[in-house]
Amino acid sequence: MVGGHAGRGGLRERKKQRTREALSLAAIRLAVERGWAAVTVEDIAAAADVSVRTFRNYFSGKAEAVAARHLDRMRRIADELRVRPGDEPLWEALVSSVEAQFAPDEDLDAVPAPDPAQVDGVRVMLTEPALQGELARAHALAQDELAAAIAERTGTDPARDLYPALVAAAAGSAVAVAIEHCLRAEAPTPLGPVLRDALEQLRAGLPVP
Amino acid sequence: MVGGHAGRGGLRERKKQRTREALSLAAIRLAVERGWAAVTVEDIAAAADVSVRTFRNYFSGKAEAVAARHLDRMRRIADELRVRPGDEPLWEALVSSVEAQFAPDEDLDAVPAPDPAQVDGVRVMLTEPALQGELARAHALAQDELAAAIAERTGTDPARDLYPALVAAAAGSAVAVAIEHCLRAEAPTPLGPVLRDALEQLRAGLPVP
DNA sequence: ACAGAATATGCCGGATCGGCAATATTGCTG
DNA sequence: CAGCAATATTGCCGATCCGGCATATTCTGT
User: Which residue spans does the record list as DNA-binding (chains A, B) (predicted)?
Assistant: First the structure.
């Protein structure tokens, strides 16, 4: 062993992660400011200082690169749930895990500061079919991991019980509905309260309003 | 006026619909029996007796063609809900509408007879990322229409209330979870009871089992 | 330090994708 | 019923995507 490195995992893995993030970020930025069709894989690769071929080692296309950020964030919900105290009721732990990922800011996954021009760019970008598909897929993938974490925590069997998959799907739906709601509103709306409301309605069995 | 035609809509529209169905069906059949990568757009177009260019007027790619069948079926849930008697409680009408689309047979959307070889082909096909994305997108699109139908029926405002989108998402989740469950099981499992169970759990607020 | 493994890159051929213009089919109207 | 307008089908083409292969470069564990 040469010596204790900083972050966990080797230098190799960290660099890989940084490249992945740089590519995803570049893809989002370019797509938002130039429009979806006007940005090629070559542009993204150049913006992250890697070859086009390397980009394609990380992502299968523009869409996957853009969706990666959303995917990573959704994944973190499952990670967060795993490290919660085990005696906490499931739903409570789940709500905390979800809110932890959307607490500070960022209405979708691109802009740190809710600049109206950029938000509008995101709206336009989200009309692209290829991107919608990839985002929906990312959502589904993350839900599968969340379902596994829920099954693990509750001692249910994902192969026999619908329960873990259903709870994961419910949580995912709450996030999706809340994000779309806030994104559709013209006045910038904080995500947190909307998300909490959605989760609460689901837990109450969706009573008619 | 020339005369009352048979089905609603002109001959033109019906022919279009038949072409669309033929293409989607051909795409599914070829992909299941040959494997995803081994079928080109040209093959599909040839199987439906249209030019490649025409195929691309209907669908943006193989994935969309295959997903079209699922999309159409999910759309019919919303259509069914609209023609239900208005005095029926929403959830009851919704459950009926969903079950009506999955009542007779077909575990996913390809095979009329649950041939084990074909079911396995479907399983393999569903591992394809591009197809997963398109299916997820179809799911999301259908949910939007369902949400509109629910809002219409309950008098809620999709722009202000989370309710319609949440209920639509819950119904969609139940369908998705039930389908995946039945597809994962090695013994052929009828979808109906599983679907009913999933919907019931959601309505009960997902109690821990 | 060295052997082995994983990654980055260039190159290439097949397939995809969408715009354009010509042609054919359908629906309407006089 | 005959012509006209609208829409669908088709072929063509260049840009792009996509993944396999071979090679060079960079990290890891002993």
Answer: 40-59
| CATH code assigned to A62-203 | 1.10.357.10
pLDDT band at B47 (very low <50, low <70, confident <90, very high): very high
DSSP A158: T
Percentage of chain A beyond pLDDT 90 is 77
Q: Which nucleotide is nearest to B63 (CA to C1')?
A: C16
Report the percentage of chain A scoring pLDDT > 70: 89
Residues A92-115 have pLDDT tens digits of 999 999 999 997 655 555 445 567
Rounded (5°) CA angle B131-B137-B140: 145
Q: What is the pLDDT of residues A136-188, one digit of tens each?
A: 999 999 999 999 999 999 999 999 999 999 999 999 999 999 999 999 998 88
Name every chain B residue with its beta carbon within 8 A of the beta carbon of A60. Answer: 129-130
Confidence at A209, pLDDT banded by 50, 70, 90: confident
User: Phi-psi category of B206—alpha, beta or left, where left has phi over 0 and alpha has psi -120 to 50?
Assistant: left
- Say yes or no: Cβ of B42 under 7 A from any atom of strand C: yes
Q: Contact A206/B206, CB-based, under 8 Å? A: no
Q: How far apart are CA B12 and CA B206, in angstroms?
A: 47
Q: Can you give the distance from the CA of residue B56 to the C1' of nucleotide C17 in angstroms?
A: 9
Contact residues, B window 104-133, toward A, CB-based 8 Å cutoff: 129-130, 132-133
Best interface-test mutation with B: which of A59, A162, A199 has the largest number of B CBs within 10 A?
A162
Q: How crowded is the C-beta side of B27, counted as CA atoms within 13 Å?
A: 29
- Nearest to residue B139, comparing CAs of B107, B104, B170, B94? B170
Structural tokens at position A7: 């972050």
Q: Which residues contact B10 (CB under 8 A, 6 or more apart)?
A: none
Cβ separation of A206 and B167 shorter than 8 Å? yes
